[in-house]
Design goal:
The complex is a heterodimer of chains A (about 120) and B (about 375).
Chain A (H helix, E strand, L loop, with lengths): L2 E5 L7 E5 L5 E5 L5 E5 L13 E3 L2 E3 L6 E3 L16 E7 L2 E5 L9 H7 L5
Antiparallel strand pairs in A: 1-9, 2-3, 3-4, 4-8, 5-6, 6-7, 8-9
Chain B lengths: L10 E2 L9 H12 L4 E5 L8 E7 L2 E7 L5 E5 L14 E3 L3 E3 L6 E3 L4 E3 L18 E7 L2 E5 L7 H13 L3 H4 L7 E10 L3 H9 L4 H4 L1 H6 L17 E2 L28 E7 L3 E6 L2 E11 L2 E10 L1 H5 L5 H21 L13 E2 L6 H12 L2
Helix pairs in contact in B: 4-8
The chains are: A mainly beta (about 120), B alpha+beta (about 375).
Chain lengths: ~120, ~375
């Protein structure tokens, strides 16, 4: 499944786009011109990584400063401990598309409870 | 104020309670410091984006910071969520954002709310509406002034106007190029006296010959008791044997190039109500800000500003600094000497002002007008 995100021209370098699917995905255009997609939600607490700080190929969570590698999804240091998923990105005719990963996401506890139908 | 029984030479001061009553101080905070332009920092202190300073303005704590676009902004130091104080340090630097230590509401350097736990689940929470509450900011003379009023008074009329009232025109201060000068020395004084005692002291020179021997040596006309602030456009002339505005009258530093011939070898003093004093001499500028803390306590921050080359080259400014540092200490000692007597029953109706101090009466009228009393 290929989901359209936005036009590459509409996503300046250094910026992120939050794709409102469930769970949400953030798409980053790095200063070097690469485009990456990862789960938008920090694995520690419900925060949008699209609102975080992009440096090179890493994004720092805006709340508690764990950094995620856009290429692998791995996290550098607590409080987040689990990686985010990475998603395939395709750019065709100037349009960015994401192919969501089929792996199980590492969502933070309250979001996981909500998705499972329980109380957050 | 009634002064029916006073001889013509004397007019009354404010009554003692104006200097001691916490209720009056609270009114001054609300109606003076929180409504007027208030000088909070030297712009160069905020030397990079994220550098910040917190300042008490009236009853409020204010964050002053520099944003990525290099503009200086100021905000109430209050998290919009549950009211925690965001910054507890007086000065510091954040990398990218101000984050509340309580629930991690996170604001960028323009004050916008950029992140909070579960914020994406609350799309109806406006990121500007729930951003840090801004206060008005102006930069002038290299200093940052804020105003907490929703509709601030005209900066040109109140602040620039105060300088023009004293000097006659704005060009007279622009010649000192104050925004490009560098801070050669800063001294912070913790004065156990009401802020008005400090203003009144600065406005008159009746005390000069008694408590300021060094200053009166350099500026002999101060011995007649009329301050530079008594006249418009008048600078007190250096004594004929004085080389510079220094503690011993020895040579000063490099003269500020824009200073005109008729400003050379002269001292000008300006009060910008409610809390700034500026002194101009040919080779430096002395810039005081008062931060009233309580009815009986005021922090005074004083900068000695010189040409950037003078500061960068490490020239010895100590004799120049020492002159006004001594003057400050002499003045603040005098204010601290008065403060305890403000609650004496003998001062319940206040004291008196002699003719060379009568212009202080206008300051008292101004304070009472602001307080609506």
């Amino acid at each position: 499944m290929k989901i359209p995100v936005c036009r590459l021209a509409d996503l300046p370098r250094g910026e992120a786009y939050r794709l409102e699917i469930d769970p949400p995905v953030s798409v980053f255009h790095t200063d070097d011109g690469e485009v990456f997609a990862i789960d938008d939600t920090c694995t520690h607490q419900d925060a949008s990584l699209a609102d975080g700080w992009l440096e090179g190929c890493e994004v720092e969570c805006p709340l508690h400063a764990s950094k995620f590698d856009l290429r692998t999804g791995s996290v550098d240091s607590p409080p987040a401990k689990l990686p985010v998923r990475t998603h395939q990105v395709v750019v065709e005719d100037g349009m960015i598309y994401v192919e969501p990963s089929q792996a199980v996401p590492n969502l933070p506890p309250c979001v996981g409870a909500r998705l499972a139908g329980g109380l957050a | 104020m009634t002064s029916t029984s006073l001889p013509d030479s004397l007019i009354a001061t404010l009554s003692g309670s104006y200097y001691t009553d916490p209720g009056i101080f609270a009114q001054e905070q609300e109606r003076i410091f929180e409504t007027m332009w208030f000088c909070v920092a030297r712009a160069s202190e905020l030397d990079k984006p994220g550098a910040f300073r917190t300042v008490e303005v009236g009853r409020e704590s204010i964050i002053v910071t520099r944003s990525r676009d290099n503009a200086i902004r100021a905000f109430f130091n209050v998290c919009r969520h549950r009211g925690a104080k965001l910054c507890t340090e007086e000065t510091g630097e954040v990398k990218r954002a101000f984050q509340c230590p309580y629930h991690a509401w996170t604001y960028d350097l323009t004050g916008k709310l950029i992140a909070a736990p579960n914020l994406t689940k609350m799309p109806d929470v406006g990121r500007t509406e729930y951003g840090l509450a801004p206060v008005h900011v102006r930069e002038w003379l290299g200093y940052v002034w804020v105003c907490l009023a929703e509709e601030p008074p005209s900066f040109e009329e109140e602040v620039v106007g105060a300088v023009v009232t004293r000097l006659g025109d704005v060009e007279s201060i622009e010649r000192y190029d104050i925004d490009s000068l560098a801070v050669g020395k800063r001294i912070v004084y913790d004065v156990k006296a009401n802020w008005k005692l400090i203003i009144e002291n600065f406005m008159e020179c009746y005390h000069c010959a008694t408590i300021h021997p060094e200053l009166t040596e350099v500026l002999p006309e101060f011995a007649d008791g009329y301050a530079a602030q008594y006249y418009v456009g008048h600078g007190a002339e250096f004594g004929s044997d004085v080389q510079g505005f220094t503690v011993d009258g020895s040579e000063g530093l490099d003269r500020i190039p824009g200073v005109s011939e008729d400003q050379d070898r002269r001292y000008y003093a300006i009060t910008v109500q409610p809390q700034v004093f500026i002194n101009l001499v040919p080779d430096h500028v002395i810039f005081h800000r008062m931060y009233p803390v309580a009815a009986d306590r005021t922090i005074v921050e004083c900068d000695w500003l010189y040409l950037k080359d003078v500061v960068d080259s490490g020239k010895d400014v100590s004799r120049s600094v020492e002159l006004f540092d001594r003057v400050n200490r002499q003045d603040f000692d005098a204010c601290e000497r008065c403060q305890p007597a403000m609650s004496s029953r003998l001062y319940a109706k206040g004291g008196v002002l002699v003719p060379s101090e009568h212009h202080i009466g206008a300051f008292h009228d101004w304070v009472q007008g602001k307080l609506g009393s």
